[in-house]
Amino acid sequence: MSKRIVSTFKQSPATKTGKAAFILSIISICTGPILGISAAVILPLLSDNISEMVGQIAGFSLMILLAFALIAMLVCSVKAFAIGERSWAVMIALALSILSVLFWAFMIVGELLMPH
Length: 116
Fold this sequence. Notes:
The chain is mainly α and 116 residues long. It contains three helices and no strands. The N and C termini lie far apart (53 Å).
């Protein structure tokens, strides 16, 4: 039994899952700048004007939210690939999701093995 291919590489995504994976991949590209701007500008303003704990809670909440977006991107891109989606957008989403998850996994392992 062969798997039916929904879209080829040169086509745009044919399923909602493929489109969602590509949109989440765009968000994953922006996670670095979002966390950087948050740590450099927004969190110090919150810490100075309201409370240091509010800034810490906001930073941790943003990190958790972006981590869930990365996991959702991985799930959507693997699911789209499994149903036969082979468009360029899904391939980009699949590559970015694997790289993003590996980056965070290496960061967590590094923190556990060599805390500073």
